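#lab-general

N.A. 3:47 PM
ok so I finally got the sequence cleaned up, no stray characters, all 283 residues accounted for. can someone with queue access submit it? mine expired

B.Y. 3:52 PM
send it over

N.A. 3:53 PM
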Amino acid sequence: MGSLTATVVPPTTLNVIPWFRTFKSITGSGFRRYATYRQATVAGLVTNTVFGFLRCYVLLAVAGAAGTAAGYDRSQLATFVWAGQGLLTVVLLWGWTELADRIRTGDIASDLLRPVHPVTSYLAADLGRAGHAALVRFLPPVLVGPLFFEVYLPRRWSTLPLFAISAVAAVVLCFGCRFLVNATAYWLHDVRGPMILWTVASGVLAGLSFPLRFLPEPLQLVLWLGTPFPSLLQTPLDVLVERDPTGTQAALVGLQLAWTVLILAACRLVQRRAERRLVVQGG
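B.Y. 4:20 PM
back already:
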């Protein structure tokens, strides 16, 4: 079988507009694709809501009579839970194995023949998915929470723009992490091991199981600076509940953006190495 390499032309000033149109088209197709799964959407909403009640009662019990825990008051904890339940599906910590499946079956070969880089193509489709999830999976839990619990509403004008930037960065960063986990299929025929490790680590270290501020401060520092996990959920949720001063919020979002750029660069590097591996193997 002849060698196969990607024929991707990097965007320049001459082709940036067609490239943007292609990116927009792929994003739209990703949105429409997930909009067809109506029953799955409803089932996911019910599940998210049920777990929202469970998590909220647990964290409120942790706050106890004192009314605070790790610097969060009861209303901030309620907002943390319900916004987190909605953001979980938008960011999508786990459940995406499309790239690994295509590598295993060999269908990845068709992706390498397309004029759009695989990382860019999959990112555009994931942004479409996230846009759909933001409408039908993020808003309902955020609206349900205030009906049963006292929630915290942002009081600073800068919080909502920072939260929007942080949420988008979390989506792109999480995509990059999932892409890297899926890309292990280029070297491993069975990626169940990396997938299980990613699922466990992201659930605990991203702030889904509990706010990372519950941990000792030295450990928090190691997690934020040494891993991208807190930037997936903890950072946008802390920004939303105004856990820190505005300057600290901006610094956390800046760190989040730095991790996003680093992980996306790693995705392109791994993809390039994988393509070389395919050429060496003659497939």
